[in-house]
Amino acid sequence: MHGYSRLGNSRPAGSPPSSPRCRHGRNKNLGAGRGPKQSIVEKVVVLLISVVFKRRGVLLFAPLLYISGMLLYMGSVNFDVVSLKNAVVVVSKRSPPGSVYRSPQVFHKLWPHMQADSNHTHNLLMAVWNSKVRRQVWKPCISNDTPEEGLPKSNGLFIIEANGGLNQQRLSICDAVAVAGLLNATLLIPIFHLNSVWKDSSHFGNIFDEDYFIHALRNQVNVVRELPGDILERFDNNISNIVNLRVKGWSSSAYYLQKVLPKLEQMGAVRIAPFSNRLAYAVPSKVQRLRCFANFEALRFSSSIRMLADKMVERMVKSSSHSGGKYVSVHLRFEEDMVAFSCCEYDGGEEEKREMDIARERSWRGKFRRRGRVIRPGANRVDGKCPLTPLEVGMMLRGMGFDNATSVYIAAGNIYKAEKYMSPLKQMFPRLEMKDTLATAEELAPFKVSGS
């Protein structure tokens, strides 16, 4: 028997071909009794495969299915919950699990249990310093024993602009030291960008000890306070004339050697502004060593900041005498700019949405209104990208075992709606202190102009 061929078959010339339906039917009858009978699962699989390969138009629905799934995940489309109430059909939206801020309701349920546990459980604060980890020998990843040999001739001047808040600026400084060492460049004391959020006009020397920074790096990287005379003359006494290289975020050390170094050698000076997050985390050990050295050895606060900090720590220890001078310090990140940038929603309703829209526009000028930019608060919360509220931080500390007798110091900027959001944290930890409660107005006055 020969298989079917479109060039000829055993059918009489005048006979028209049988219809597919009849053909399939005959094949079924002919196949009866041949081999084992197909199961239901096998039939379904065969049916699906035949649909995909014989009806290829169905594949056009695949992108639609994908888009629908993404919309469901992002919170744009939710399954409606239908219920009967007084013989009336009530249709309401159902939010995906974890996409709505419900911490106040959780706190309301847990508060009676917290009150019952207060002062009756073993305070973690008394045991945390007795951890087995302390018995291990900690060794620094860097060494202060650096050779006193002179640095090789510089390839040029490296200028960066540290943007963002204080923490981002610190990271940018450490990255700048690492890149300057990698390129064998002379580093100009980092310039601080006037941040649109903090509106802080501080210079490097207002926050960090400039002399100590230069001295600590003397055998690692050459650092200068001002532009050298030959550089000023070459660029007409205008730093803006120095080429500003556009470097992508998280660039590798190889990129700097291949792209930035030739420009540095050619022009004698290069500038990168902004410089935040412009060096990758994964870098060679020698580069990482410089980064660590800058962070842990070369950077320290200015004398005025250190003096006030010492006083505040002394007062905090004294106020924690009931626990042997031990206390918990928390860096609370719930300032207005953090809440606005996260694009998360809390429990402030329309007023909160309006305030956040204004804050985003004021600080980032249309960044969140660009074409194609979609804000999905629910998806952000599900993905864990929302800043913790003071309430959530308090519940976390209580869950860790710190009771209401624990002294807590809160390091933070201006908390968004502080009266509302700080109230439950103070309720959980009555022994709560902030810089305004530890230091006098006169002591804080010199730093009021410094937003960060």
Automatic annotation (TrEMBL):
GO molecular function: glycosyltransferase activity
Key words of the record: Carbohydrate metabolism, Fucose metabolism, Glycosyltransferase, Membrane, Transferase, Transmembrane, Transmembrane helix
Leader sequence segment: none
Swiss-Prot/TrEMBL GO biological process terms: fucose metabolic process
Residues that span the membrane, as ranges: 57-75
Residues covered by region (Disordered): 1-34
Entry keyword Transcription: no
CDD domains: O-FucT_plant (cd11299)
Pfam families linked: O-FucT
Family membership noted in the UniProt record: Belongs to the glycosyltransferase GT106 family.
UniProt name for this protein: O-fucosyltransferase family protein
Organism: Pyrus ussuriensis x Pyrus communis
